Amino acid sequence: MSDLAGSQTTQPHNLGPTALEQPPCWWCCTCVRKASCKRKTGNLNKNNHTTNCFIKCLLKLRQHKSVPYISYMTMRNHEMATLSDREYFTSYEDLEIHRLMVGDLPRTTAYQEAINRNKHLFHGKTVMDVGAGTGILSLFAAAAGATKVYAVEASGTAQLVNKVAKQNGFDEVISVLNCKVEDVELPSGVRIDVMVSEWMGFYLFHESMLNSVLAARDRFLAEDGVMFPSEARLYACPCSLQGLYEEKITFWNNVFGFDMSAVGSSVLDATAKKPEVCVVKQDDLLAQPVCIKTIDLRWVETNEITKFSENTFVSITKRAPYHGLCLWFECDFNGLDYNENGDSIGELVTLSTSPFSAPTHWKQTVVTLGAAGTERSSIGPEDGLQTDHDIADDTIRTKSKFIEVEEDEVIGWRLEFEQSESNARHYTITLQMLDPEEDEHPEPCSCGMARCLIIAKLIENEMQAAAGTKCNPEPVVVEETAAN
């Protein structure tokens, strides 16, 4: 996978109430102020900027707190950072990338166990490995008894798959197709029984091959064919990155006796311009995780992943600074079936990239909020948003503030993912913070607010009543009529 951040140029920019300059970066930012009270706080002076390079943030001040909520954030890849297909596939000729992926034990072991524990799906079957890389998944399938494995790989590593197959005695089983899967032509009448692929990217969708996998499924998979993985789920959870922020930002507060916090402030600005790919400790999660997207790989259509969004509300489990939303995914390999005798066979194997599981090369992705505001030590809290760049007097010390959330506090957000029209492997992520009191909650909602608890109970009762009606239908009364 390519680095999410890429190279970027960071310029100091004004975060005043009327306008702000935007830096020429891959993930860039625009911030405006909007108070939750009725009085206006300033006029928005819109800046012209490239359509494909912006993050927009609305900072909403709650009257009972001096710390603002970041209300709207959009992240989008710069066109200059978009790789062409040729560049994308060539990047995978770096064998160090493959060593890291194959050496990712949770990842590779999950595929191995999914195939080995479900050999009934592979034995004597025709398999396609989409994006075969160096061929490890093709080898797993061949070793599980597949009659034929089509290893599709568009990069130059396809030549190595041929050699690896021969080294392991599978050169008659594994056929290597050195092209994009969209260009594959199979022999007449050949249908695929099992399609296996490691297509997932950061936060499931970044730099993923999902569109290509679905195109291959629609062209080649048999009617009773199986997709491995069979299901993918994307999760989100508010989190704190205290350790990471102390390492990257607080470090600059005292460097060999010198105050270099201005450097730390610039680092802090950069955190709001791009997602942070890092290992998040489970202790840094601030609520119960929520599944925000489920994909059934056998039936999902491309329009379902082109653009989607989800409103979510959760109850905070502990007091902490709220730094962003942590994203991760899980993939199921469902091989459960029944044999001719009606006995259950096969297993369900899950690959998880969550903070509760062993770290993978995907780690977790955090859509960061950055600093919510600053406070001058010589002046009390102000209505206006202040940053280091707003302060003319360099002797006035500032202290960065993040959103502080309290235990049992309910927070909400709306995450929207939109696929780039020019590159299906790239997505725009939009994060909008919601007001739990004013914005509509999904039904059911497990946030813990009284109204949501009542609605959830009503839905549960209705479902139980419906289930009871199906199991115990009301008897049909037939009225008897007197014989003529």
UniProtKB/TrEMBL annotation:
InterPro entries, alphabetized: Arg_MeTrfase, Methyltransf_25, PRMT_dom, SAM-dependent_MTases_sf
Domain Protein arginine N-methyltransferase: 231-368
Keyword Methyltransferase: yes
Record's keyword terms, sorted: Methyltransferase, S-adenosyl-L-methionine, Transferase
GO cellular component: nucleus
EC number of the protein: 2.1.1.319
Catalytic activity: L-arginyl-[protein] + S-adenosyl-L-methionine = N(omega)-methyl-L-arginyl-[protein] + S-adenosyl-L-homocysteine + H(+)
Taxonomic superkingdom: Eukaryota
A GO BP annotation: methylation
Class of this enzyme: transferase
Name of protein: type I protein arginine methyltransferase
Naturally occurring in which organism (per UniProt): Hyalella azteca
